[in-house]
Write a structure and sequence with these properties.
The protein is mainly alpha-helical. It has helices at 25-28, 35-58, 66-73, 91-116, 150-179, 200-210, 212-215, 224-239, 247-256, 258-273, 282-293, 309-326, 331-337; strands at 2-3, 18-19, 127-131, 135-140, 189-192, 219-222. The longest helix has 30 residues, at 150-179. It is globular and about 70 Å long. It is a multi-pass membrane protein.
Length: 345
Amino acid sequence: MVEEPNSEGDDPRGGPRVSFGLLRREVSEPGPTTLWQYVISLLLFLLTVFSCVELGIASKISSLPPEIVTYFTDPNATGPPPDMQLLLPFVESALPVAYGVLAIQLFHEVGHFLAAFPKKVKLSIPFFIPNFTLGTFGAITQFKSILPDRKTMFDISMAGPLAGAALSFSMFFVGLLLSSNPAGASDLVEVPSKLFQGSLLLGLVSRATLGYRAMHAATVAIHPLVIAGWCGLTTSAFNMLPVGCLDGGRALQGAFGKDALFGFGLTTYSLLGLGVLGGPLSLPWGLYVLICQRTPEKPCLNDVSDVGTGRRAALIASVFLVVLTLIPLWDELAEELGVGLVTSF
């Protein structure tokens, strides 16, 4: 049941004019997962594990061999590549960050499946997408069943990001508390303070917890949980963008319909293209959405019934927090707030 696209006014009995369609059995009933899908899912998961370990090693940048840091960070570096076996001693110390990022993403997927189970909605196996900056782009999980109504689409779509964000913020905040505890100084890692300028919301929370002196320096000593939580919150925020088949796009389609998704999606693409959302991460995320997640979700069996004011308000509040998370701090504001050491304007 869908709204008639060319109707000129509402039904005289109340509500929009609707049309009904029939689906073939092979369309309405999910097919089995093939062996190749399992193989591809496993390979992508292993690549994601590797990218998460790489993220953990990169978090140790202050203690890595100088020749390796120069090779990967200096575009003008010349000469043969360094011996990558020099990184092996850092793998074990990188595991806490890798475990944290993986746990957040797995918790995200568990949220989807727990919300889908009581609705008897079948989901595909997750296809994790590696990302060497944040550990992972998230996972592509498809609806294999035709959804009964828009409330179901909204609830399942929102369950994953909310679960992942809850665990991410717990790690992030606990990590900040541990970072401000002198007794745990041996567990801390030094990271450039400019990294905290990547998010208006997370930078302000870090500044409020660690204090001006700690944040207004060239490097900041933080617990690995801060890195895992920061990456998890950023990934959750990107997946809640109201565009395409991302969780945020599905939730918006469920709450406001496909026409609203088109307008919000166009705005999101524009903000990503201009680098307003996510800063240097905006280009890879925009390409990821265009390549893998640009197609809106299929209509529900009942694609007309309203989801209610409460769900719409929850979505609006979530998008507002997403924007605050993905907007970076510009230099003047960062200097005024003491978030990172700004040397020039």
